[in-house]
Write the C-alpha cells for this entry.
Amino acid sequence: DTGVSQDPRHKITKRGQNVTFRCDPISEHNRLYWYRQTLGQGPEFLTYFQNEAQLEKSRLLSDRFSAERPKGSFSTLEIQRTEQGDSAMYLCASGKDRGSSGANVLTFGAGSRLTVL
Amino acid sequence: AQKVTQAQTEISVVEKEDVTLDCVYETRDTTYYLFWYKQPPSGELVFLIRRNSFDEQNEISGRYSWNFQKSTSSFNFTITASQVVDSAVYFCALTNTGTASKLTFGTGTRLQVTL
C-alpha cells in the first residue's frame, strides 16, 4: 500500500466557488479523519468516519463544509461558497480502530492546499 | 479540555549539535497518549513515536530520544548529532482513549539545521 493519497495537492479558487477534495486512505484502515492546518499552526480536527459513518464533526466545520465516505473507502470534503478564511491545508489521515486497546497511530496524507482569492 | 504547548517556535542549530524540542500538555484524563510527528517541507506528517500515560520509560531510537515526565506534564524530544535532513516542523500531539484517536496538536517547532 502506498499510504494516504490526497487530490488535488493544490487548488486556487475564487471566493464563492465550490471546491472538493478527495482522500484515499490505507485500504485496511476503517477510520478516516480530516484536519485543517493554517500557516504556523498545528492541524485542527474537523471530522472523522468509522467505515462509512461520520461519527463526529468539529465546531470548525461550518454548514458550508460537507464530508462523505460513501462506501467506507475514499472520502470527499466539499467546501461550498468558499471564503478567504478557508485558505488552508486540508489534511486527511487514516487509522485502524483499536477499540479498548488504545489510540491508533494516524497515517497522514500530504494534504490539499487551498488558496481562496 | 486538552491542550498542547510547544513554546519554541523556531530553533536553529548547526549540524552535529544536539537539540531538544519541548512539549507541555494539559489533560484531565488519567489515560492518554502522546505523539510526535515530523512535517518536512513536502507537507506530509510523519509519525515518530506514540507513548501512553502509564509508560514513563524514556525511549531511544537511533539519534532520537524522548523524555516523558508526568510530574511536569512534559514529553520532550531530543535529536542527537542533528543533520540537515532533520530540518522540519515537529509537532507534539495528545489524545485519550475516549476520543477515537482525535489528536490535539501543538503549534509546532520549526527546526533548521545548517552546515
